[in-house]
Amino acid sequence: MVENRPFLNFLAHLVLVLGVTIVVFPVYIAFIASSHGPNDFLSGVVPLVPGPHIIENYSTMLSSGMTSSGAPPIGPMLLNSLIMAVGVAVGKIAISILSAFAIVYFRFPFRTLAFWMIFITLMLPVEVRIVPTYKVVADLGMLNNYGGLIIPLIASATATFLFRQFFLTVPDELMEAARVDGAGPLKFFRDILLPLSVTNIAALFIILFVLGWNQYLWPLIVTTDQSLYTVVMGIQRMAAVADAEPRWNLVMAAVILAALPPVLVIVAMQRLFVKGLVETEK
Hints:
- By secondary structure, the chain is mostly helical.
- The protein is built from 14 helices and no strands.
- It has helices spanning 6-33, 54-63, 74-105, 111-120, 130-139, 146-150, 157-169, 172-180, 185-196, 198-213, 217-222, 231-239, 248-268, 270-278.
- Helix 3 (74-105) crosses helix 7 (157-169), helix 4 crosses helix 7 (157-169) and helix 10 crosses helix 14.
- The longest helix is centred in the first third of the chain and has 32 residues, at 74-105.
- The radius of gyration is 24 Å and the shape is globular.
- The model has no long low-confidence stretch (mean pLDDT 85).
- Belongs to the binding-protein-dependent transport system permease family.
């Protein structure tokens, strides 16, 4: 039962407004900085209204970038980040859903052991296994290409675990009915399980897309070719210039442009994302 008291409603809205302000204000300051000249934010007074250089700054980042900092134009970096994020998200979902399907619906020796071995890898972040992973990628000749950026990151114990838990909630009667109708395992997977999993796949896609988009350490290690720089690597290079003050107006313009694709993906898939998070049973 939910109480409808004016004071509690006011308090709830006040907390929401404060929370949104705390989250949005740094983004607003970044946007304001991207619209001013290079020295406006170094004077000690932070402007709170947009400046006159917004078109100039964004045009510079989209056309020529900051070559003095070793960062190429942001367009190719955004494309590299998009390819990597989509590749990582699609690869993780494809491998995880097939792994969970095999673990739940097939009976083979050491099935439970296989699941727990996958589950244990949850405790091994990329940083722990980064040296042997780099060795394997280098030996396979995948440095400085999209395969090296994407393939080592497409296994996900978390997604496998979530799909397994979802498949366990699917009634056995569905599988028995499909078997009576002559459906094999692949037809059952394609025609019944996949349609039921659409919202879960959408929710995971958004989470994994943002994860792939924000990758910094792994692309930094396997990529030395400027044409394969991701946008996060480019922003770091812009902000870490030697013997000079960073051009924060251009850095902030790059930050705003880098934030747009994940925001657009979340907005476009918001309804499926919420359903995927709240629906636990079919």
